Amino acid sequence: MTKMLTVLSTLVSVVAMAAPDAPPFSPGEQASYEVRFLGVPAGVAQITVGLRTQQHGKQVLPLVCVGQTTSVADVFQINDRFISYYDPQSQKPVAADFFVDENRKRRRERFRFDAEQSRIFANKKKEGQGAYDVDYEVPANTMDLASAAFWLRTQPIAVGMVHEIPIFTGARWYPMKATVEGTERLQTKLGEVTVYRVSITTDFQGNATTKGNVLVYYTADERKLPVRVTAEFVIGSASADLVQYLPGSPSL
Predict the structure, then answer these.
(1) Is residue 15 within 8 Å of 213, Cβ to Cβ?
(2) What is the percentage of the chain residues whose pLDDT exceeds 90?
(3) Residues in a beta bridge with 183
């Protein structure tokens, strides 16, 4: 369930797209989701747009993604935090931090994205062990999952549109394709709303491998809120539903 919860905690915003001249997110925005596994409440995912800060000489927005298990019956406890430092000017990630706390095993991974060299430089450390450096060759415009989610929010949307981007997950990259399939009415915590249904295809491996496409639903209004994600993983079905939303403020 480890990678599944991490994937869901970032995919919940992966296809909230809007026109480039009207960015749909700003500092202070926060969305909270209930994650279910095999129909049973299993965790929470929260995505927050932090205050502007500096990373590697760039002004960035920290995109903070937190995934936690909540079921007392779950013997494998997860408390992960992923932060992508997103440059809104270039619409690319500058760096990322991944803090992993899973079943009392902790590690820290830091990444620097070098667009000119098409490489990602990483420093990794497991608790009780020394840190080490490693770098990865990646395609041009490769993003982490969180930055890709917010990049897609700036893109145009219409039924039939397809957006593709290479995704780096910490050790290798995968192609990701988002296809806008259609609209429908959906009952949510916000009430009954009209949503766009978007199908996501990836080549993730291990427990994050999906049996079919991931489906993401978001409101067909100016908020472009992702309200539901459903996926069939090799270890079972999972979903994430929006339970709380706080808008951000451009003045922050």
Answers:
(1) no
(2) 53
(3) 196
Full-model pTM: 0.84
Instruction: Report the distance separating Cα 143 and Cα 54, nearest Å.
Output: 18
CA distance 9 to 136: 24
Residue 67 lies in a domain: yes
Residue 220: partners with Cβ closer than 8 Å, 6 or more residues away = 183, 193, 194, 195, 196
Task: For residue 134, give both structure tokens.
Answer: 């490693």
* Straight-line distance from the first to the last Cα atom of the chain, in angstroms, rounded to the nearest whole number: 36
User: Which residue reads 């539903």 in tokens?
Assistant: 241
Q: What are phi and psi of 205, to 5 degrees?
A: -110, 170
pLDDT at 205: 56
In this predicted structure, the answer to whether residue 194 has a pLDDT above a threshold of 90 is yes
Task: Give how many domains the chain has, as a whole number.
Answer: 1
Q: What is the largest CA-CA distance in the chain?
A: 52
* Structural domain of 151: 2-246
